[in-house]
Amino acid sequence: MNRPLSSALLISNVVAATCLSAQSRPDTSTQSYMVAGIQVIHRRAALNDIVAANVYLLGGSRQLTFANAGIEPLLLAVSERGTAHYTREQLRRQLARSGSTIVIDTDRDWSMLGLRTTRQAFLETWTGFADRIVAPRLDTADVRIEREDAVSALAQRRDSPDDWTEHLADSVAFAGHPYGIDPVGNDRSVAGLTAAALKSYHRDQFVKSRMLVVVVGDVERPIVDSLVAATLGALPAGTYRWTLPDTLPRRAATVYREQRALPTNYLIGYAPGPKAGDPDYDAMRVACAILSGQLFAVVRSRQSLTYAVNAPFEERAASAVGLYVTTNDPIAAVTAMRNEIRALQEEAIDGRSLAPLIQQFITEYFLDNETMAAQANFLARAQLYYGDWRRGNAFSASLRAVTPADIQRVMKRYFRDLNFAYVGDATKLPDSAIRF
Description:
Elements: H1 7-17, E1 30-35, E2 38-44, E3 50-58, H2 71-78, H3 88-96, E4 101-106, E5 110-118, H4 122-134, H5 140-155, H6 161-173, H7 187-191, H8 195-205, E6 211-217, H9 221-230, E7 254-259, E8 265-275, H10 280-302, E9 308-310, E10 313-314, E11 318-327, H11 330-346, H12 351-368, H13 372-386, H14 395-400, H15 404-414, E12 419-424
Parallel strand pairs: 2-6, 7-12
Antiparallel strand pairs: 1-2, 3-5, 3-6, 4-5, 8-11, 8-12, 9-11, 10-11
Helix pairs in contact: 1-10, 1-12, 2-5, 10-11, 10-15, 11-15
Protein backbone atom coordinates (compact mmCIF):
# COMPACT_ATOMS: atom_id res chain seq x y z
CA MET A 1 0.00 0.00 0.00
CA ASN A 2 1.39 3.42 -0.95
CA ARG A 3 1.66 6.17 1.62
CA PRO A 4 -0.19 9.49 0.90
CA LEU A 5 1.57 12.85 1.18
CA SER A 6 0.59 16.19 2.65
CA SER A 7 0.73 18.52 -0.38
CA ALA A 8 0.79 21.91 1.34
CA LEU A 9 3.45 20.86 3.81
CA LEU A 10 5.61 19.23 1.17
CA ILE A 11 5.60 22.31 -1.01
CA SER A 12 6.33 24.75 1.80
CA ASN A 13 9.25 22.67 2.98
CA VAL A 14 10.73 21.99 -0.46
CA VAL A 15 10.64 25.70 -1.23
CA ALA A 16 12.39 26.43 2.06
CA ALA A 17 14.94 23.68 1.57
CA THR A 18 16.20 24.52 -1.90
CA CYS A 19 18.40 27.32 -3.15
CA LEU A 20 18.77 26.31 -6.83
CA SER A 21 16.57 27.73 -9.59
CA ALA A 22 14.60 25.55 -11.95
CA GLN A 23 15.20 26.87 -15.43
CA SER A 24 13.42 24.93 -18.16
CA ARG A 25 14.40 26.99 -21.21
CA PRO A 26 17.86 27.53 -22.72
CA ASP A 27 19.73 30.30 -20.91
CA THR A 28 21.08 32.79 -23.45
CA SER A 29 21.48 35.67 -20.99
CA THR A 30 24.27 34.16 -18.85
CA GLN A 31 27.97 33.98 -19.62
CA SER A 32 31.00 32.71 -17.72
CA TYR A 33 34.42 34.11 -18.50
CA MET A 34 37.76 35.04 -16.95
CA VAL A 35 38.75 38.62 -16.16
CA ALA A 36 42.31 39.21 -15.01
CA GLY A 37 42.47 35.66 -13.62
CA ILE A 38 39.09 35.80 -11.85
CA GLN A 39 36.10 33.73 -12.90
CA VAL A 40 33.03 35.88 -13.55
CA ILE A 41 29.49 34.60 -14.07
CA HIS A 42 27.38 37.36 -15.57
CA ARG A 43 23.63 37.18 -16.06
CA ARG A 44 22.23 40.07 -18.10
CA ALA A 45 18.78 40.42 -16.54
CA ALA A 46 16.72 43.40 -17.64
CA LEU A 47 13.69 42.79 -15.45
CA ASN A 48 14.31 45.97 -13.43
CA ASP A 49 17.09 48.36 -12.43
CA ILE A 50 18.37 46.27 -9.52
CA VAL A 51 21.88 44.81 -9.73
CA ALA A 52 23.25 42.14 -7.39
CA ALA A 53 27.02 41.60 -7.42
CA ASN A 54 28.57 38.96 -5.17
CA VAL A 55 32.24 38.24 -4.58
CA TYR A 56 32.68 34.75 -3.10
CA LEU A 57 35.86 33.86 -1.20
CA LEU A 58 35.90 30.12 -1.70
CA GLY A 59 36.79 27.47 0.82
CA GLY A 60 34.86 28.55 3.89
CA SER A 61 35.64 26.36 6.87
CA ARG A 62 38.43 24.58 5.00
CA GLN A 63 40.52 27.76 5.03
CA LEU A 64 40.32 28.10 8.80
CA THR A 65 41.60 26.64 12.04
CA PHE A 66 39.84 26.59 15.40
CA ALA A 67 42.22 29.36 16.49
CA ASN A 68 41.34 31.86 13.73
CA ALA A 69 37.69 30.93 13.10
CA GLY A 70 35.73 34.11 12.49
CA ILE A 71 38.56 35.96 10.80
CA GLU A 72 36.88 36.40 7.39
CA PRO A 73 33.59 37.97 8.58
CA LEU A 74 35.55 40.14 11.01
CA LEU A 75 37.92 41.31 8.26
CA LEU A 76 35.01 42.10 5.94
CA ALA A 77 33.20 43.96 8.73
CA VAL A 78 36.29 46.04 9.57
CA SER A 79 36.70 46.93 5.90
CA GLU A 80 33.54 49.05 6.17
CA ARG A 81 35.53 51.43 8.41
CA GLY A 82 37.87 52.52 5.66
CA THR A 83 40.12 51.45 2.81
CA ALA A 84 43.25 52.73 1.12
CA HIS A 85 41.16 55.05 -1.05
CA TYR A 86 37.98 55.73 0.94
CA THR A 87 37.22 56.86 4.45
CA ARG A 88 34.34 55.33 6.37
CA GLU A 89 32.25 58.43 5.71
CA GLN A 90 32.96 58.33 1.98
CA LEU A 91 31.97 54.66 1.77
CA ARG A 92 28.72 55.35 3.57
CA ARG A 93 27.87 58.41 1.46
CA GLN A 94 28.60 56.42 -1.70
CA LEU A 95 25.94 53.88 -0.71
CA ALA A 96 23.48 56.37 0.79
CA ARG A 97 23.23 58.47 -2.37
CA SER A 98 21.64 55.58 -4.22
CA GLY A 99 20.09 53.59 -1.38
CA SER A 100 22.56 50.77 -2.03
CA THR A 101 23.62 48.21 0.56
CA ILE A 102 26.51 45.81 1.13
CA VAL A 103 25.89 42.43 2.76
CA ILE A 104 28.22 39.89 4.36
CA ASP A 105 27.32 36.20 4.34
CA THR A 106 29.47 33.48 5.89
CA ASP A 107 28.94 29.87 4.86
CA ARG A 108 30.70 26.56 5.40
CA ASP A 109 31.80 26.69 1.74
CA TRP A 110 32.60 30.39 1.30
CA SER A 111 32.44 33.92 2.62
CA MET A 112 30.59 36.44 0.48
CA LEU A 113 30.59 40.21 0.20
CA GLY A 114 27.60 41.35 -1.84
CA LEU A 115 26.56 44.66 -3.39
CA ARG A 116 22.87 45.49 -3.87
CA THR A 117 22.49 48.59 -6.00
CA THR A 118 20.86 50.00 -9.14
CA ARG A 119 22.06 49.95 -12.72
CA GLN A 120 22.57 53.71 -12.60
CA ALA A 121 24.70 53.55 -9.43
CA PHE A 122 26.62 50.37 -10.22
CA LEU A 123 29.80 52.04 -11.46
CA GLU A 124 30.06 54.41 -8.52
CA THR A 125 29.21 51.92 -5.76
CA TRP A 126 31.39 49.13 -7.18
CA THR A 127 34.59 51.11 -6.61
CA GLY A 128 34.12 51.43 -2.85
CA PHE A 129 32.69 47.93 -2.60
CA ALA A 130 35.67 46.38 -4.39
CA ASP A 131 38.18 48.48 -2.43
CA ARG A 132 36.90 46.86 0.75
CA ILE A 133 38.14 43.56 -0.69
CA VAL A 134 41.34 44.79 -2.34
CA ALA A 135 42.67 47.35 0.14
CA PRO A 136 40.95 47.40 3.56
CA ARG A 137 42.80 49.67 5.99
CA LEU A 138 42.42 47.35 9.02
CA ASP A 139 43.58 49.89 11.58
CA THR A 140 44.10 48.62 15.11
CA ALA A 141 41.38 50.87 16.60
CA ASP A 142 38.85 49.81 13.95
CA VAL A 143 39.66 46.13 14.49
CA ARG A 144 39.19 46.53 18.23
CA ILE A 145 35.73 48.09 17.85
CA GLU A 146 34.44 45.49 15.39
CA ARG A 147 36.04 42.65 17.36
CA GLU A 148 34.32 43.72 20.56
CA ASP A 149 30.97 43.89 18.79
CA ALA A 150 31.52 40.45 17.25
CA VAL A 151 32.59 38.88 20.54
CA SER A 152 29.55 40.30 22.28
CA ALA A 153 27.20 38.97 19.59
CA LEU A 154 28.81 35.52 19.67
CA ALA A 155 28.63 35.34 23.45
CA GLN A 156 24.92 36.18 23.28
CA ARG A 157 24.21 33.11 21.17
CA ARG A 158 23.73 31.26 24.45
CA ASP A 159 20.77 33.51 25.16
CA SER A 160 18.82 31.88 22.33
CA PRO A 161 18.35 28.16 23.03
CA ASP A 162 17.49 27.60 19.36
CA ASP A 163 20.69 29.25 18.09
CA TRP A 164 22.83 27.63 20.75
CA THR A 165 21.49 24.14 20.10
CA GLU A 166 22.13 24.61 16.37
CA HIS A 167 25.71 25.66 17.13
CA LEU A 168 26.23 22.65 19.36
CA ALA A 169 24.67 20.29 16.81
CA ASP A 170 27.08 21.47 14.12
CA SER A 171 30.02 20.99 16.47
CA VAL A 172 28.91 17.47 17.42
CA ALA A 173 27.81 16.16 14.03
CA PHE A 174 30.69 17.62 12.02
CA ALA A 175 33.50 16.81 14.46
CA GLY A 176 36.49 15.55 12.52
CA HIS A 177 35.36 17.32 9.32
CA PRO A 178 36.30 20.87 8.19
CA TYR A 179 32.63 21.82 8.60
CA GLY A 180 33.19 21.30 12.31
CA ILE A 181 34.90 24.70 12.32
CA ASP A 182 32.23 27.40 12.48
CA PRO A 183 33.33 30.10 10.01
CA VAL A 184 31.84 32.84 12.22
CA GLY A 185 34.00 31.56 15.07
CA ASN A 186 33.20 31.85 18.75
CA ASP A 187 33.78 34.49 21.38
CA ARG A 188 37.20 33.03 22.29
CA SER A 189 38.59 32.64 18.77
CA VAL A 190 37.43 36.09 17.65
CA ALA A 191 38.73 37.73 20.82
CA GLY A 192 42.23 36.56 19.88
CA LEU A 193 42.22 38.12 16.41
CA THR A 194 44.48 41.16 16.04
CA ALA A 195 44.98 43.77 13.33
CA ALA A 196 48.27 42.09 12.45
CA ALA A 197 46.52 38.72 12.06
CA LEU A 198 43.87 40.25 9.78
CA LYS A 199 46.50 41.96 7.62
CA SER A 200 48.49 38.74 7.30
CA TYR A 201 45.35 36.77 6.42
CA HIS A 202 44.34 39.34 3.83
CA ARG A 203 47.77 39.21 2.22
CA ASP A 204 47.79 35.41 2.00
CA GLN A 205 44.12 34.52 1.45
CA PHE A 206 42.52 37.36 -0.52
CA VAL A 207 43.79 36.12 -3.85
CA LYS A 208 42.14 35.93 -7.26
CA SER A 209 42.22 32.13 -7.45
CA ARG A 210 39.92 32.02 -4.39
CA MET A 211 37.36 34.35 -5.93
CA LEU A 212 34.18 33.83 -7.89
CA VAL A 213 32.34 36.96 -9.00
CA VAL A 214 28.64 36.74 -9.91
CA VAL A 215 26.81 39.75 -11.34
CA VAL A 216 23.08 39.68 -12.07
CA GLY A 217 21.38 42.73 -13.54
CA ASP A 218 21.04 44.94 -16.58
CA VAL A 219 24.75 45.66 -16.93
CA GLU A 220 26.74 45.23 -20.12
CA ARG A 221 29.73 42.91 -20.18
CA PRO A 222 32.33 45.59 -21.06
CA ILE A 223 31.38 47.45 -17.87
CA VAL A 224 31.72 44.32 -15.73
CA ASP A 225 35.03 43.46 -17.40
CA SER A 226 36.54 46.90 -16.86
CA LEU A 227 35.41 47.21 -13.24
CA VAL A 228 36.63 43.76 -12.19
CA ALA A 229 39.96 44.17 -14.01
CA ALA A 230 40.63 47.62 -12.54
CA THR A 231 39.88 46.60 -8.96
CA LEU A 232 39.94 42.91 -8.04
CA GLY A 233 42.38 42.31 -10.87
CA ALA A 234 45.08 44.05 -8.83
CA LEU A 235 45.12 41.27 -6.23
CA PRO A 236 47.78 38.53 -6.33
CA ALA A 237 46.87 35.40 -8.29
CA GLY A 238 47.41 32.80 -5.58
CA THR A 239 47.31 29.04 -6.08
CA TYR A 240 43.91 28.12 -4.63
CA ARG A 241 41.82 25.48 -6.39
CA TRP A 242 38.20 24.73 -5.46
CA THR A 243 37.31 21.08 -4.92
CA LEU A 244 34.35 19.42 -3.27
CA PRO A 245 35.05 18.49 0.36
CA ASP A 246 34.93 14.94 1.60
CA THR A 247 31.62 13.65 2.93
CA LEU A 248 31.01 13.86 6.65
CA PRO A 249 32.33 11.07 8.86
CA ARG A 250 29.71 8.54 9.91
CA ARG A 251 29.75 7.63 13.58
CA ALA A 252 27.51 5.79 15.97
CA ALA A 253 24.54 7.78 17.28
CA THR A 254 25.42 10.09 20.16
CA VAL A 255 23.80 12.94 22.07
CA TYR A 256 25.52 15.90 23.71
CA ARG A 257 23.39 17.31 26.54
CA GLU A 258 23.54 20.74 28.09
CA GLN A 259 21.47 20.98 31.27
CA ARG A 260 19.40 24.16 31.38
CA ALA A 261 16.15 25.09 33.09
CA LEU A 262 13.99 26.10 30.14
CA PRO A 263 10.24 26.18 29.38
CA THR A 264 10.86 23.61 26.65
CA ASN A 265 13.68 21.36 25.43
CA TYR A 266 15.60 21.69 22.15
CA LEU A 267 16.95 18.80 20.10
CA ILE A 268 18.83 18.93 16.78
CA GLY A 269 20.67 16.03 15.15
CA TYR A 270 22.48 15.44 11.88
CA ALA A 271 23.76 12.54 9.83
CA PRO A 272 25.98 12.60 6.72
CA GLY A 273 24.09 13.17 3.48
CA PRO A 274 25.13 12.79 -0.16
CA LYS A 275 27.84 14.91 -1.73
CA ALA A 276 26.84 17.57 -4.26
CA GLY A 277 26.59 16.03 -7.70
CA ASP A 278 25.66 12.62 -6.30
CA PRO A 279 22.46 11.21 -7.85
CA ASP A 280 21.02 10.98 -4.32
CA TYR A 281 21.38 14.72 -3.66
CA ASP A 282 18.05 15.86 -5.12
CA ALA A 283 16.25 12.73 -3.96
CA MET A 284 17.43 13.43 -0.42
CA ARG A 285 16.30 17.04 -0.69
CA VAL A 286 12.79 15.89 -1.61
CA ALA A 287 12.83 13.15 1.04
CA CYS A 288 13.64 15.68 3.78
CA ALA A 289 10.80 17.88 2.58
CA ILE A 290 8.37 14.96 2.64
CA LEU A 291 9.54 13.92 6.10
CA SER A 292 9.18 17.50 7.36
CA GLY A 293 5.58 17.56 6.16
CA GLN A 294 4.79 14.27 7.84
CA LEU A 295 6.46 15.36 11.09
CA PHE A 296 4.41 18.55 11.13
CA ALA A 297 1.21 16.62 10.50
CA VAL A 298 1.87 13.95 13.12
CA VAL A 299 4.14 15.35 15.84
CA ARG A 300 2.72 18.85 15.92
CA SER A 301 -0.83 18.75 14.57
CA ARG A 302 -2.02 15.27 15.54
CA GLN A 303 -0.10 14.58 18.76
CA SER A 304 0.49 18.21 19.90
CA LEU A 305 4.02 17.37 21.11
CA THR A 306 5.69 20.50 19.74
CA TYR A 307 5.23 23.88 18.15
CA ALA A 308 8.27 23.43 15.86
CA VAL A 309 9.52 20.29 14.12
CA ASN A 310 11.20 19.54 10.79
CA ALA A 311 13.80 17.49 8.96
CA PRO A 312 16.40 19.97 7.67
CA PHE A 313 18.48 19.30 4.57
CA GLU A 314 21.78 21.14 4.90
CA GLU A 315 22.47 22.18 1.32
CA ARG A 316 26.24 22.29 1.23
CA ALA A 317 28.94 20.81 -0.97
CA ALA A 318 28.82 17.89 1.48
CA SER A 319 25.22 17.76 2.65
CA ALA A 320 23.74 16.65 5.93
CA VAL A 321 20.25 15.45 6.86
CA GLY A 322 18.72 16.08 10.21
CA LEU A 323 15.91 16.30 12.72
CA TYR A 324 14.81 19.27 14.79
CA VAL A 325 12.21 19.52 17.51
CA THR A 326 11.43 21.61 20.55
CA THR A 327 9.20 19.78 23.03
CA ASN A 328 8.26 19.20 26.66
CA ASP A 329 8.20 15.45 26.08
CA PRO A 330 11.40 14.51 24.22
CA ILE A 331 10.87 10.75 24.42
CA ALA A 332 7.37 10.90 22.95
CA ALA A 333 8.41 13.38 20.27
CA VAL A 334 11.47 11.39 19.21
CA THR A 335 9.45 8.18 19.21
CA ALA A 336 6.89 9.77 16.87
CA MET A 337 9.69 11.06 14.64
CA ARG A 338 11.31 7.66 14.54
CA ASN A 339 8.01 6.08 13.51
CA GLU A 340 7.64 8.50 10.58
CA ILE A 341 11.19 7.79 9.43
CA ARG A 342 10.62 4.05 9.56
CA ALA A 343 7.37 4.40 7.66
CA LEU A 344 9.17 6.16 4.81
CA GLN A 345 11.93 3.56 4.91
CA GLU A 346 9.63 0.57 4.88
CA GLU A 347 6.67 1.72 2.79
CA ALA A 348 6.74 3.40 -0.64
CA ILE A 349 4.99 6.74 -0.83
CA ASP A 350 2.11 7.34 -3.23
CA GLY A 351 3.77 8.05 -6.59
CA ARG A 352 0.61 9.61 -8.06
CA SER A 353 0.80 12.52 -5.63
CA LEU A 354 4.57 13.06 -5.90
CA ALA A 355 4.77 14.37 -9.49
CA PRO A 356 2.16 17.15 -9.16
CA LEU A 357 3.69 18.24 -5.86
CA ILE A 358 7.11 18.64 -7.45
CA GLN A 359 5.60 20.51 -10.39
CA GLN A 360 3.79 22.81 -8.01
CA PHE A 361 7.08 23.45 -6.25
CA ILE A 362 8.70 24.50 -9.54
CA THR A 363 5.92 27.01 -10.21
CA GLU A 364 6.04 28.47 -6.71
CA TYR A 365 9.81 28.61 -6.80
CA PHE A 366 9.75 30.78 -9.93
CA LEU A 367 7.23 33.10 -8.29
CA ASP A 368 9.07 33.44 -5.00
CA ASN A 369 12.77 33.09 -5.77
CA GLU A 370 13.69 35.21 -8.76
CA THR A 371 15.30 38.19 -7.04
CA MET A 372 18.68 39.21 -8.43
CA ALA A 373 20.40 38.16 -5.20
CA ALA A 374 18.74 34.73 -5.26
CA GLN A 375 19.81 34.22 -8.86
CA ALA A 376 23.40 35.12 -7.98
CA ASN A 377 23.48 32.48 -5.24
CA PHE A 378 21.87 29.93 -7.57
CA LEU A 379 24.56 30.48 -10.19
CA ALA A 380 27.36 30.24 -7.62
CA ARG A 381 26.03 26.99 -6.15
CA ALA A 382 25.51 25.43 -9.55
CA GLN A 383 29.04 26.35 -10.60
CA LEU A 384 30.72 25.16 -7.42
CA TYR A 385 28.59 22.15 -6.53
CA TYR A 386 28.12 20.78 -10.06
CA GLY A 387 31.13 22.23 -11.88
CA ASP A 388 29.12 24.33 -14.34
CA TRP A 389 26.46 27.00 -13.78
CA ARG A 390 24.48 25.47 -16.67
CA ARG A 391 23.79 22.40 -14.54
CA GLY A 392 21.34 24.50 -12.56
CA ASN A 393 19.12 24.69 -15.63
CA ALA A 394 18.48 20.94 -15.33
CA PHE A 395 17.34 21.20 -11.72
CA SER A 396 13.62 20.93 -12.48
CA ALA A 397 14.25 17.81 -14.58
CA SER A 398 16.26 16.30 -11.74
CA LEU A 399 13.41 16.90 -9.32
CA ARG A 400 10.84 15.41 -11.67
CA ALA A 401 13.00 12.30 -12.02
CA VAL A 402 12.77 11.52 -8.27
CA THR A 403 10.64 8.40 -7.72
CA PRO A 404 9.03 6.80 -4.66
CA ALA A 405 11.74 4.13 -4.83
CA ASP A 406 14.40 6.88 -4.67
CA ILE A 407 12.76 8.34 -1.57
CA GLN A 408 12.68 4.97 0.14
CA ARG A 409 16.30 4.22 -0.82
CA VAL A 410 17.80 7.48 0.45
CA MET A 411 15.76 7.35 3.65
CA LYS A 412 17.26 3.94 4.40
CA ARG A 413 20.75 4.95 3.41
CA TYR A 414 21.11 8.32 5.12
CA PHE A 415 18.62 8.58 8.00
CA ARG A 416 20.64 6.60 10.54
CA ASP A 417 23.39 7.25 13.07
CA LEU A 418 22.29 10.80 13.82
CA ASN A 419 24.45 12.80 16.24
CA PHE A 420 22.38 15.11 18.43
CA ALA A 421 22.76 18.17 20.59
CA TYR A 422 20.18 18.67 23.33
CA VAL A 423 19.59 21.73 25.51
CA GLY A 424 17.09 21.46 28.34
CA ASP A 425 16.22 18.95 31.07
CA ALA A 426 18.87 16.27 30.49
CA THR A 427 16.97 13.69 32.53
CA LYS A 428 14.19 13.62 29.93
CA LEU A 429 16.30 12.21 27.09
CA PRO A 430 18.07 8.88 27.71
CA ASP A 431 20.61 7.49 25.22
CA SER A 432 18.16 4.84 24.08
CA ALA A 433 15.76 7.49 22.74
CA ILE A 434 18.09 8.81 20.04
CA ARG A 435 18.94 5.56 18.27
CA PHE A 436 17.30 5.35 14.84
